[in-house]
Structure formats: C-alpha cells, structure tokens
Design brief:
Blueprint: E1 3-10, H1 25-41, E2 51-55, E3 58-60, E4 65-67, E5 73-76, H2 81-84, E6 92-96, E7 99-100, H3 106-114, E8 121-128, E9 131-138, E10 142-144, E11 147-154, E12 167-171, E13 182-183, E14 185-190, E15 195-196, E16 207-211, E17 213-221, H4 225-228, H5 234-241, E18 243-250, E19 254-262, E20 276-285
Signal peptide: 1-19
Protein name: PDZ domain-containing protein
Domain PDZ: 50-128
Length: 289
C-alpha cells in the first residue's frame, strides 16, 4: 500500500528538530494534525503525488475578538490586542478608531485594521452595562512563517541494507488506534544503523531494517494536542519530555509497529511527568530476504 510521506519545512520556524532546538513541540504537532485533516478533506491521495506548495512569510493583523451579527463580543483570544485593551465578552463594539461599526462599514473597517502598523494605537469604543467606554491597545502584528509542503509517493518499504545475521523491521507506517490512547511517533535516531534525523529533511523514513538483537531507538511522541490539553499541565511537561529512548529486542522476520501510549488517567502514571511511553502496539511477520 502506498502512502504519502509528508514533509513540512517551515523556512523560519517549526522545522523538524530535536528537543534541544525545538521551540514548541505542541505547535508542531498541531500543524501536523491539521495538515492530515486538510489532506483527508481535500481527498488528496498517493496518486496525486508529487505535489509541492509554497508560501512566503506574510504579515497579518488579528484583533482577537469574535463578534456575532449584532457586533457583540462572544469570544476572545487570550493575549490578543482585544484582550490587552480589556475588551470583554458581552461588550457591544460601537466604533473602531473612531469609525462607527455597522453592517455597511464593517468591510472597510476590517480592511483598514489589516493595514494597521506595528506599535500604532488602536481605539475601541464599546458599550458595557449601558455605558460607553473607550479602550486602547498598541497594535501587535503577527508574521506567518514562510513554508514549503512537499507530498511525495512513498512505498513504506525499508531500504535494502544487507544484514548477514538475520534482521527484523521497525515501522511507523500505520496509524495506531487512538481510541486505545495510542498515538503516532516519529523516529529520531537509531544508532545501530547510523540513522539520525536532521533538523530539516525532505524525507523521513517510515520503515527501518534492523539487525536481530537488542536495539535502542529514540522516538518523539506526536500525541494529538486535543488529547493532551484535557489534562492541565501536560502541555507544559511535553516541552521537555516528548522524546524517549526505547530498547527493542528484534527477532528475525518480525515487524515492530511503534506508537506512543498516552496515560490520560494520571492515576496510571508512576511519575506525574511520565504522561506517555513508547510501545510496540502490533507485531507482524515479514521476510528479511
């Protein structure tokens, strides 16, 4: 069965990296899961490969308030300019930069807001408890990093490396069952065969041929952030505990399918920070010849 090997190269950030250079592992996992969803929604298959899509870095402005049709604030983005200005859920937005907000003016106001320069002052007039209040916040623009997305056809087959003492395989080709709290992992290093993931790669192997015997494998969890965020504190822990080393006793002609087992119930943990462990979730037969 063919499958895409998905490679996301952010020019400015979010590159494949080890824990020492990773800025935010959770952001990278979020991006990966959103790309998977997008590929499924767009019905992109292996037959469409190769595809390369690229975007340069882009500057944008995000005010951070969600309004209903009556311009009432129904949600706020934490840390946004709206939140810094003390806009609150339930406020009615009456004017922005002294321009009245209504259905006919909204498009023009949004266009003007998108052109606001970093550090200038944004004035927001709101109605709260039947009183008008004028709030202010300095404009904070954001920059989306430049990125390149490559989709290349990959067979999920291990490279042909002759091994004289018998061999087996380790694989991250198949998705483990999330319903059983098992999530995908990424292989970062296998010293026995000289593999070490680079910071920015155009290809990451999914199946490795290994010598029979004891092998150490360094893996990084790619647990869905939706799952992680249900346990307060795990998002912080994963910034320094997302990479682990597992020892695998490889038998000839066996395929060991790896996964990250997430301990969503804290009572299952021997240590509060050990929120996951690398496991073999399935073993299959495959000839090494």
């Amino acid at each position: 069965m063919n499958k895409f090997l998905l490679t996301l190269l952010f020019v400015q950030s979010l590159a494949w990296a080890s824990a020492a250079t990773e800025i935010d592992h959770e952001k990278r996992v979020d991006v990966l899961h959103e790309i998977r969803k997008a590929l499924i929604t767009a019905n992109v298959t292996a037959q469409d490969a190769p595809i390369m899509i690229a975007e340069p870095a882009r500057s944008f402005y995000h005010f951070g308030a969600v309004l209903d049709q009556d311009f009432k604030v129904v949600a706020l983005t934490p840390g946004s300019d709206a939140a810094k200005a003390d806009v609150r859920v339930g406020d009615m937005i009456k004017a922005i930069n002294h321009q009245e907000v209504n259905k006919s003016s909204l498009a023009d106001i949004l266009a003007q807001m998108n052109d606001l320069q970093e550090g200038t002052t944004l004035a927001i007039e709101v109605q709260r408890d039947n009183k008008l209040k004028t709030l202010q916040s300095p404009v904070t623009r954001k920059t989306l990093p430049g990125w390149r997305l490559e989709l290349v056809e990959d067979s999920g087959q291990a490279p042909d490396t002759p091994l004289t003492m018998g061999c087996g395989f380790v694989s991250v080709f198949y998705n483990p069952p999330i319903s059983m709290h098992r999530h995908t992992v990424m292989i970062n290093e296998i010293k026995d065969i000289g593999f070490k993931g680079k910071l920015t790669e155009t290809k990451r192997e999914q199946v490795f041929r290994l010598p029979a015997g004891e092998v150490e494998i360094v893996v990084q969890e790619l647990i869905s952030s939706d799952s992680i965020r249900r346990n307060r504190g795990d998002s912080r822990i994963r910034q320094y505990n997302s990479i682990k080393t597992m020892t695998l006793v490889v038998e000839p002609d066996k395929v060991y399918h790896l996964a990250a087992e997430y301990f969503s119930d804290r009572r299952e943990r021997e240590d509060a920070d050990d929120y996951w462990q690398p496991i073999v979730w399935k073993t299959t037969e495959r000839s090494c010849e």
